[in-house]
Amino acid sequence: MQKSRRTGGNHRRATPTPSQRTALTEFDIHAACYVGNTAEVRRLLSQDQSDINRVGGLWGLTPVLTAALQGHRDMVELLVSRGADVSLVDVYGDNILHWASEGGGRETVEFVLSLDGVDVNSRGGGGWTPVMRAARGGHRDVVELLVSRGADVSLVDDDGDNILHLACYEGDGTTVEFVLSLDAVDVNARNSDGQTAADVASVRGHRQLSDLLVSRGTQ
Length: 219
Hints:
It contains twelve helices and two strands. The chain is mainly alpha-helical. The protein has a two-stranded antiparallel ribbon.
């Protein structure tokens, strides 16, 4: 977190007024959200020093998207209560549920799912849904939660990858096992490169997963 700078000995820099907001001040709220410093965010918002929906960084995240990614459920709740717009998306079209699922914080995902207007099957960058992001990250508990809330595991992304393909990327066996237990997932489905999930696991160096998939019927 960016702390207040000192200039000229013991003279602390002046606190900016709403008309004097700086890039540094706006960075402060993103940084505070990233590390989960709710006290600092409360201070910034109470002094009207920061735009709660300001976009920052290469991906164009708002503070609440940053907090969701990091799994800071209390921070997300605070920002929402102060007016954070949860309908906003980043430069790739990913929304708050995508980012919460990417981060893998189950409590954060549960809170986001309770918000009005959040679509569990919304499409973001690459055509990924939130459950695809959770599977890609190896977050089995989040995948299970999203499925229980209506996530459609039969969907594929822009590359033709289904949830099983994506679960094989990082090689988390518990996530793959759970996905295999779902009736709607075709173990022999091929993506746009003609690869099955077993092929993806093999290419990524997850030999045990590849063997598991073959044992489950991959041709």
